[in-house]
Amino acid sequence: MAANSQSSAPAAKPLVGIIMGSTSDWETMEHAAKTLEQLGVPCETRVVSAHRTPDLLFEYASSAEQRGIEVIIAGAGGAAHLAGMTASKTVLPVLGVPVESKALKGLDSLLSIAQMPGGIPVGTLAIGKAGAINAALLAAAILGNKYPEIREALRNFREAQTAKVLGTPDPARAAIASVIAPATKLKRKKRA
Ligand code: RP5
């Protein structure tokens, strides 16, 4: 339900702003957008670079609250100043996703986002896809305090996740079953 996605129905007002330092971060950050969509949480997605478009970053961060955004997820890699600088210009909760960098595998991104000075917090998630998914889940948990339907969507997500794990206790059997089931179907088709 990204607010800028093509749809004939009017898009719901975004509650979460997903920003990223570069279009190259989308491969990671799309997992945050997809997870929010799964939970029915309206979001917007934008490229806003702390270094390449600093004025846009200031404008985005300082106007987000007024525009109705309630949580910001910021993903960036390398010298990742986006989340911290965004947090410095808003009192909205800012969740940082360290994007995996080529040179240092995202350790640089992680430290740049996590090591904020006392007074300006950024909730820092794991490096890469897991961090992007968890940023969305954490955003939903924050919003769930105000929106009961989001809390219930999150509860359903967690229950489905637990059921899926419990439903596949043996990965070896699951792999065999995935080979046998289509083969059996094919035999039945041939017989018919
Ligand atoms: C950061 O630099 C971005 O967040 C991105 O992760 C990294 C590389 O950006 P590109 O050179 O791919 O645009 O600002």
Summarize the structure.
By secondary structure, this protein is of the alpha/beta class. It has helices spanning 26-38, 54-63, 82-88, 107-114, 129-144, 148-167, 171-191, and strands at 16-20, 43-47, 71-77, 94-99, 123-124.
Write a structural description.
With 192 residues, the chain is of the alpha/beta class. It has 7 helices and 5 strands; from the N terminus they run E-H-E-H-E-H-E-H-E-H-H-H. The protein has a 5-stranded parallel beta sheet, with helices on both faces. Helix 1 runs parallel beside helix 5 (129-144), helix 2 (54-63) crosses helix 3 and helix 5 (129-144) packs across helix 6. The model is unreliable at 1-7 (pLDDT under 50). Helix 4 (107-114) links the parallel strand 4 and strand 5. It is 49% helix and 13% strand. The protein has helices spanning 26-38, 54-63, 82-88, 107-114, 129-144, 148-167, 171-191; strands at 16-20, 43-47, 71-77, 94-99, 123-124. Residues 21-22, 24-25, 49, 51, 76-78, 99 line the site of 5-O-phosphono-beta-D-ribofuranose. 5-O-phosphono-beta-D-ribofuranose binds next to strand 3.
